[in-house]
Amino acid sequence: MAPSTSSFVPAVYSSGMIIALTGTPGTGKSTVARYLSSQGWKVLEVNELAKRYGLLKSKDVARDSFELDPDDLQQALVQEGMGEGVLVGHLAHLLDVNMVIVLRCHPSKLAERLADRGWPLAKVRENALAEALDIILAESMDGDAPVFEIDTTEMTPEGAAEATLSILAGENEKYAVGNIDWSEEALLWS
Ligand SMILES: Nc1ncnc2c1ncn2[C@@H]1O[C@H](COP(=O)(O)OP(=O)(O)OP(=O)(O)O)[C@@H](O)[C@H]1O
Ligand SMILES: [Mg+2]
Description:
By secondary structure, this protein is α/β, with parallel strands linked by helices. It has helices at residues 29-38, 46-52, 70-80, 107-116, 121-132, 135-141, 157-168, 186-189, and strands at 18-22, 43-45, 59-60, 65-66, 85-88, 99-104, 147-151.
């Protein structure tokens, strides 16, 4: 995404905040979340929330994924009474959160990871294209919460987790939106 013309707005985690840890499938959200959890952070996977509240009903067979309505998820989140912590999943940024962290991964590397999961080629390509086109980032920017993005392509899982923690600590200028541009990759995956 092109650098924003608006000035950078720093943000610091404080108690009572819910952070969305989002990104295209395979970017490493759950991996980072496990690390945060081991450090004592309260972490909730959106999929777990959906399961607990009986929202995993209608499956999109062509995409082999469940169709989830963000309004239903928001209702479940309220019912859950999650007072603070990290909400993890590729829909997390669509809920009522106080900060959004988008994990990014170069489309080619992401495609390798998704192929390693045994995903069909069409689904691999769909997600690599979504990453090249900044789809999750753009959706995140539509919300009101401050948004940051981390290019994890060359990071270890621990490195990605440390980068996430440094955003929460307020050292987040280097993760301002606009430094990642994989638009030239889009042709490869479309
Ligand atoms: N920084 C990293 N470096 C190398 N491999 C990683 C990194 N982060 C995650 N992985 C690997 O990539 C794969 C996907 O990671 P993970 O399951 O955490 O992604 P996810 O974003 O939670 O995906 P989904 O949205 O499908 O739940 C896993 O095999 C994981 O071990
Ligand atoms: Mg996950």
